[in-house]
Amino acid sequence: MADPITDERVAAVLRTFVRGCGPMLARLRREDLDIEDIEVVEDSRGEIDRRLLERVKARLDRIRYPGSEGWARLTVEERTDWWVNRVGRLTSLAASVTGLAGALGDRLPLQDMLGSASQGLLLCAMASEYGVDDRGARVRLLASALFGRDIDPEVAAGRGDDAADEAVVAELSGEQPATAEPAGRRFGFKAAATWLWRQGRLLLAISDELEKRPHGRFYHRALGKVPVVGMAGDYFGERSGLKRAARAAHKWLHAHATSPI
What we know:
Layout: H1 7-29, H2 50-62, H3 69-72, H4 76-95, H5 103-106, H6 110-129, H7 135-147, H8 153-157, H9 162-173, H10 189-203, H11 207-210, H12 218-224, H13 230-256
């Protein structure tokens, strides 16, 4: 029997994972149209139709996405719901592709690998809306909400040595972690699946912990064992598991966030 994985090793893997989530979250925040991207065309007299421009700005301000004025008026809970419901639908779909293989896919750790990466990304987004940007705090959040571990703050923070953390991941998984952001103009299904695969592979370093993450209901798992249509069961299971993880994250963040926004 393998030795139980220590908090120190879980923290090292999660620090590497959290660091890899940063560029993706930044990308998701800039996906939507921004007023600064609108090209203003002057008329023949070199003047701009200010009324039209103001109407365009007002229209954009009513659209709620990260960085918009409408977004700034939302509560923390409403912002986190946006991440879980809008982005979470796409990541849950990408994480459920193993359902195409039915029961055979369930024998592999891929579902927990992709599902954990999906849940971890959205929990990091939730943390940002609560004003929790410290990497160690996010590590504690993920360890608690996903794996039921209460990691000491000093252990979660580590020594600030990214290379040492990557060495731990390589030791546990047998390969170097790859956390590069996927290429592509838009964040669609292919980009989501590629990113989850890359981030999920480093989480395999703590594969025994991944089984502890929030899952769907028993009927989701039953449907997931049927080839082809199993993807639908796995998708709804991932959505259910993500919502459970989000509830656990809300509880943790309310207890630990010092300056929610």
